[in-house]
Amino acid sequence: MGPATIELTQIAAITFDCYGTLIDWEAGIRAYVAPHLQRASRGTVTIDAWFARWEEIQFSLLTPWRPYRDVLAESFDRTMRAFELEVFADGGPGLVHSLAEWRPFPDTVPALRRLGRGRRLGIISNIDHLLLADTLGQLAAPFSLLVTAEEARAYKPDPAPFRLALARIGVPPSSILHAAFGWKYDLAAARAVGMRTCFVNRSGGPRPAGEPPDLEVPSLAALAAAFAG
């Protein structure tokens, strides 16, 4: 765990990116895509190559805002076409429906319960209301703040979702820690509005380029342990 540059006792609230930080979205997407890819490419396109291309395409579809279910469905279709693979009508919508089955990382629920005993918890997510509702029951945690891209009419890294969160939570930005795995979507934007940042580096990879986060942890379990002292 990287050294903290903040006093954790001064943190009154922790907000989280949801998909990729709390929910293992990569495993969920890969589980859905793998059989489609095998059927369409017969092994000529690897799931790693597909996922990397899909991430690029999805990011390109986030501006201007439109419902995430539309982004998710179209990104699937475009990625299949990028590899010149057959696209069926149920492919993209099926990926949207699979989101309800994406599971939390093993340490997510215990860590949230520990963290929620001493401070307020929130989610700031690039998602639609109804899709987030499919996930919340799995997290079993007392969230006092939920902000979606649908409400903000903008996707992270646009600062609008973070500004909406700040308007609702009612504590100074410097007393809020935003925890996320992605610098591209979350950490730089959170820092830009004055929030503290935590890089949840589950993969153990190098830190992203740019100003370093205030805290780096290898898991949510480690984040909970840091606050426990």
Task: Give a quick precis of the structure.
With 229 residues, the protein is α/β, with parallel strands linked by helices. The protein has two domains: 8-24 and 104-228, Rossmann fold, CATH 3.40.50; 25-101, DNA polymerase, domain 1 (Orthogonal Bundle).
Jot down its keywords.
229 residues; Rossmann fold; DNA polymerase, domain 1; 6-stranded parallel beta sheet; 6 strands; 46% helix; 13% strand; globular
Number of helical elements: 10
In order across it, which strands form the biggest sheet?
Answer: 3-2-1-4-5-6
Which whole number gives the mean pLDDT?
A: 94
Look at the helices and sheets and give the structural class. Answer: alpha/beta
Assign the CATH superfamily of the largest domain: HAD superfamily/HAD-like
CATH architecture of the largest domain: 3-Layer(aba) Sandwich
Overall body shape: globular
Order of helices and strands: EHHHHHEHEHHEHEEH
Which radius of gyration do the C-alpha atoms yield? Answer: 18 Å
